[in-house]
Amino acid sequence: MEPPPDASRLEQDRLDKIAAMRAAHVEPYPWTFAGRTPTVIVRVKAGALNPEETGTEAFRVAGRLTAVRRHGGSAFFDLEDASGPLQLFLRADELGAGGLRTILEWIDGGDIVGATGRSYRTRRGEPSLLVDELQLLAKAIHPPPEKYHGVKDPELRLRQRYVDLLASRESRRMFELRSTVVQGAREFLQGEGFLEVETPTLVQVAGGAAANPFLTHSSYLDQEVQLRVALELPLKRLLVGGMERVFEIGHVFRNEDLDSTHVPEFTMLEAYAAYADYRDMQDWMERLFSQLAQTVARLFPDIPGAVTAPERFLRPFGTVDFVEALEEKSGLSGILDRSLDELKTLARKVGATVPAESPIGTFYDKLFDHYVTPTLIEPTFVLDHPAASTPLAKRHRSKPGRVERFELYIGGVELANAYSELNDPIEQATRFREQLAARGVESYAMDDDFVEALRYGMPPAGGVGFGIDRAVMALSGAASIKDVVLFLPIRRLPGPG
RNA sequence: GGGCCCGUAGCUCAGCCCGGUAGAGCAGGCGGCUCUUAACCGCAAGAUCAGGGGUUCGAAUCCCCUCGGGCCCGCCA
């Protein structure tokens, strides 16, 4: 019970109150509070009353006090639980002069309390609970943030997300929305017969995407292991194993910088369907996103970006051919026939800096990012990429030099990526070797066992993957991925030890 | 990795250009108030001006370094 030596006056006052309660044999951190009703229900019941009318039914509510307004012989507390806010009205008439005084002595804004009372509507019409008993459930020693402006300091919001959350209902709502999106995607896929699986995050070779992996060490194996950068390769092994429709939702890790659309640890959804191709995945994505947009708009009318989501995800989405779009927007022609040197020159001209030894696909992507990506505001499928940039996709059935692939863009951001999956083990081995030979800063790692799996025969299949975080951004209108990820990586502060 | 910007009380912010005793609101303390809702009124208190160094008679303010954060660019299919 000894206060830390650096406790501020504010904290010391609250510690003193705890001591006073204990001296009076009142527990400031009791064990439970049974039989509570969400505040929203009391609000509705009290809202049906006439001003100054008291309801007949008793309720118990619990939550955090966000404001305390004292009036001598009475007081108004604002209490907030997950369902919303509710005003508590405390009067000496119900609590006794001594009872009210004790409450006001011991309770501060920010405390977690439980209250019992009847529904009541104030003279001004505010739905309230007329309190006849109020109990402290957890004393807050730190004072809450400023009640009107809340927490603005972005560093504080990052380092202590719980402070942001407890002060900001908007912030909490965003994560309720996120949960709705995850659940909606899961139910959609399950409804289409996909089996949800989990595969390891610790792998020997982080494959399935060109990205820098995090490295760590396994004591058990006494070997270096890596954190996965994609879900793709283990899930396709499951297709080899006879699972026909599988999906996974899980974290992948890419050892790269953080910005408004990238975060090193993020949540990926990938789904694979045997006896399907990328066109089937396209249809699924269109239906999934348009359905999610409607759900989100219905459940989150208080989030402006969510309300407009259904209009942004109206079906059918646009479609453009990768090469046609690039040639049209750039004014360049015969892009696939250009030499590596020509492409390098063109890429430099648009300000892209790429390592000199990068594979040719990198330059197509750079040019596309520069000329086309910013124009893809409405949901748009970009189809049939050059083969060189995509070693895990099947070559196009009718367009030479291309693969069967789409990326879904919205708001100039890549949302989803899908292929007709390459299932020819000989060609897969060749593509991996070409990637390794052309190795730039990063490349697709060679996963020998994956090729071995394909040699047992993988059915023709379509696969799709998308970042949950970016999907939530698109559906909520969030400006930054930081607004939709609860805990972000942040540098530790210098400290003792 | 490069450029620009920010760090003042628990929180939200003034003060910095142009150097001269560190300010307000909220929260907290004391007093008043039985219908407020950013409650109100009065009194008192609360600061390592991110940290370190320099210039100066004098630095929150000017200069340098460090730490932390933000935005943009680069990197990240």
Summarize this structure briefly.
By secondary structure, the protein is of the alpha+beta class. It has 17 helices and 16 strands.
Number of strands: 16
> Ranges with pLDDT <50 over ≥5 residues?
1-6
| Overall geometric form | elongated
- Under the CATH scheme, the architecture of the largest domain is 2-Layer Sandwich
**Structural class per helix/strand content?**
alpha+beta
Helix proportion: 25-40%
**Largest sheet strand order:** 6-10-11-16-15-14-13-12
Q: Span from first to last CA?
A: 24 Å
Instruction: Give the name of the CATH superfamily of the largest domain.
Output: Bira Bifunctional Protein, Domain 2
Into which percentage range does the β-strand content fall? Answer: 15-25%
Instruction: Write down the Rg.
Output: 29 Å
Number of helices: 17
Average pLDDT, rounded to a whole number, is 91
CATH class of the largest domain: Alpha Beta
